[in-house]
From TrEMBL:
It comes from the Bacteria. The keyword Protease does not apply. Residues 1-19 form the signal peptide. The lineage of its organism: Bacteria, Pseudomonadati, Pseudomonadota, Alphaproteobacteria, Rhodobacterales. The keyword Disulfide bond does not apply. It holds the Pfam family ABC_trans_aux. Gene3D superfamilies: ABC-type transport auxiliary lipoprotein component. Residues 35-199 form the ABC-type transport auxiliary lipoprotein component domain. It comes from Maliponia aquimaris. This is ABC-type transport auxiliary lipoprotein component domain-containing protein. PROSITE patterns: PROKAR_LIPOPROTEIN (PS51257).
Amino acid sequence: MIFRPLAATLALLMLTACEGGPQYLVETAPSSLRVNARVSTVLVRTVSLPSYAEDQKIAIEDETGVVRDSKFGLWADEPARAATLRITRNLNTMTNANVAPEPWPMPEPPQGVVDIRVETFIATKTNTFRLAGQYFMGSEIPEAVLDPEDFDKAPRELPPPLPDKARLFDIVIPMPDSTPGSVATAQSAALTALSEAIARDLAR
């Protein structure tokens, strides 16, 4: 499926790096989605990225289909950490749940968990940014409840507050060119589109 870029303009900041050239930082793409989640707290596990996308060097797919260093410079943050925090921030805005990345920072354990495994995370040779993979969500099954009026009765099993789900995603964002600004804008729009899909599943 193809998602068109968001109309809002992303701020792209170029930081001067001591080594390795300029560093690029993008802000989160906005979304108007608001839903009520089935659970009040959600843990987002650290996003799993393919090896070429884990490096701070900005990778692109060239005309021959080879993944290579773009020579643009570096991302200003570790990509897996940045993607995790961006999705966490998006879900906090899109849902009424308290969402946090691992390690879980709150005293009580989370009611729901989201685990994202990315297969493709790159600016392609066709001037698109592609984000593809799979995400999982669910929660622990609550302890069975005893009948206070009949302790000999078998405990009543309760359903998990967040049903187990596994979803494939394949998000493609068109880019006007393969400059750092276009790559950063498309990447952020793709992460917002993924966050919206996850938010809708948290509400179902």
